[in-house]
Amino acid sequence: MAAAAWTGPAALAAATWDHAHGDAANSGFAGVATRPALRASATVPGLGSFAPGAGPVIGPDGTVYLGNEQGVLWALHADGSFYWKQQLGAGQSIQASPVVDTDGSIYVVGEYTYTDHRVTPAVRRTDSTLYHIAPTGGGLWTRPFPEHFTGVPQAASRGATSAPPNIWRSGSQAAIIVPAAYKVLGGSMELYLLAFPPDGGPPREQAVSYQAQALNADDGGILSTAGCIITLCFLHPGFQPTVTPPAPSDSLPAHYTAPMSGVGIFTFPGGGLPWVIVNDPWQQTIGYTFSPAGGFTEMFRKTDPARGYAASPMLLPDGHSVTAASDADANSIIPGHLVFTGPNGASLPNVGTSFPLLDTPARTSDQRLVVTSQSGAVIFLQGTTVVASAQLPGQTIASPAVSRSHVFVSTVSSLRTFNALTMTEVGRLDWAGGGLSGPAIGPSGRVYALASNTLYVFPAPPLRPCPTCTIQRPPRPAARESAGAR
Question: 3-class DSSP state for residue 228?
Answer without folding.
Answer: helix
